[in-house]
Amino acid sequence: MAKRILVLNGPNLNMLGIREPGTYGSRTLADIETMAVDEGAKLGLEVTCRQSNIEGELVTWIQQALGQFDAVIINPGAYSHTSIAIHDAFRAVNLPVVEVHLSNIYTREPFRHHSYVSPVALGVICGLGATGYKLALHALAEKL
Ligand code: DQA
Predict the structure, then answer these.
(1) Are 14 and 77 in contact, with CB atoms under 8 Å apart?
(2) Measured between alpha carbons, how far is 127 from 13 in angstroms, rounded to an integer?
(3) Domain that holds residue 43
(4) 30 Cα–ligand 1 center, Å
(5) How many structural domains compose the chain?
(6) CATH number, domain at 56?
(7) Ligand 1: nearest atom to the Cα of 112
(8) What is the pLDDT of residues 33-82, one digit of tens each?
(9) Which residues of 89-111 are buried (b: 16+ CB within 10 A; e: fewer)?
(10) How far from 141 is each of 25, 26, 110, 113, CA to CA, in Å?
(11) Is the pTM higher than 0.70?
(12) Which residue from 78, 68, 72 is spatially nearest to 90, judged by alpha carbons?
């Protein structure tokens, strides 16, 4: 059976394409999600994509991933830097998680240098734009 991967995107990532293209690129979230589904299919992975601007909704989806998905790829957006709730949800379900950021958060403002998700992630990819999601899928295809 194909391994199932949940790809989550957090707040403001629905604005990709319009939002700060110099930082986040010109691809829309729909482009990235299509790319993730196609890349997953090539790797024998079944990819489901969701986006929310609401912290609690992301927490609920992480909880519900237990038994439904084999791993999660998440770009938590600004919640990376603030959300103990998302950190705790990943600890609770104990699923492999790859954290992705389009931009290199370490070359940006100091408040972006800490992520609450990184300590519960299998790996972290940042600064490589939409390619980061592809790399995360490749890593999980090998790992699972
Ligand atoms: C981001 C980086 C975060 O600091 C920011 O709040 C985002 C996007 C990224 O993909 O580079 O919303 O996660």
Answers:
(1) no
(2) 15
(3) 3-143
(4) 17
(5) 1
(6) 3.40.50.9100
(7) 4
(8) 999 999 999 999 999 999 999 999 999 999 999 999 999 999 999 999 99
(9) bbeebebbbbbbbbbebeeeeee
(10) 26, 27, 33, 28
(11) yes
(12) 72
